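Closing statement on the NAI sub-project.
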Amino acid sequence: MKITIGMFGFGRTGSVVAKEIIKDEICELSWVLRKSTAMEGKYASRLLGFDHNEGMIYSIEDIDSEAFYQDNHVDVIIDFSSASAIENYEQAAQYGTRIVSAISKYDRFHLEQLKALGKQTAVLYSPNITLGINFLIEASKVLQRIAPHADIEIIEEHFRDKRDVSGTALRIAEDLGLDKRQHVNSIRVGGIVGKHEVIFGLPNQTIRIVHESLNRAAFGQGAIYAAKWLMGKDKGIYTMEEAVALNFVNNTHVFEVDE
Ligand SMILES: NC(=O)C1=CN([C@@H]2O[C@H](COP(=O)(O)OP(=O)(O)OC[C@H]3O[C@@H](n4cnc5c(N)ncnc54)[C@H](O)[C@@H]3O)[C@@H](O)[C@H]2O)C=CC1
Ligand SMILES: O=C(O)C1=N[C@H](C(=O)O)C[C@H](O)C1
């Protein structure tokens, strides 16, 4: 039996993630939900160059959420759309659907909604769903404990059109106990997919830990990993650190948002 997936978002990232899901042997892309009505009725698979039908595209404008989730049940929803989309899929939880949210930045209101969803079903939330970034985070925590007096700065680089400060960089700052307004440095140029660097400055040497996503397929592979992992989990709210079993250093991340 395959793991059936419903995708929220089919933009820059969602479309690449959808391609990875279609290529995966264990997963099946049941449908894609997006805001606009532009590609409604088409198959994501066809738009992505496959020669079979998979992942019918619907618009949230034209569905009745209650009936939709009943008639189009999926094992897991993967969300690469926008923070408010949670309002469109919270009904799915009552049918046992699990949630992987990759939204990089939630406000307090939507984060509370996500937490509430975790009381009904298994939810994994990660502002950076690549497997590699978790190594950067854990390595940074270890280094901070070894060299507590080092100056630490976080640099995040993304494509020109990314508006928000990187949710990953804010998470790294929280994990290292740094003031997000002072120690997160953002660069927006060209088409950089996503690069995060933590710099440790000591008097006579500098240590840099860098993670770079070279292709958005990295997010697809991470999301698929998270979806498979979540299938074995009871209701609750989980992190990618838990999914990749990297919470060995000390505690698991506790959710926080900006005031
Ligand atoms: N956690 C991670 O590792 C990553 C997270 N992201 C996050 O994913 C999100 C999407 O990023 P992009 O693909 O670059 O954006 P984009 O603007 O290219 O695409 C957004 C897509 O979501 C759809 N959408 C927006 N609101 C919706 C709603 N309420 N319901 C259904 N569909 C809706 C739009 O129609 C569009 O298809 C952002 O929050 C981004 O930061 C992106 C890459 C990696
Ligand atoms: O918007 C993106 O694209 C990305 N957002 C995430 C973030 O804000 O940290 C992660 C990733 O690097 C890409």
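The chain has two domains: 3-129+217-243, 131-213. With this model delivered, the sub-project is considered complete and its resources will be redirected to Aim 3.
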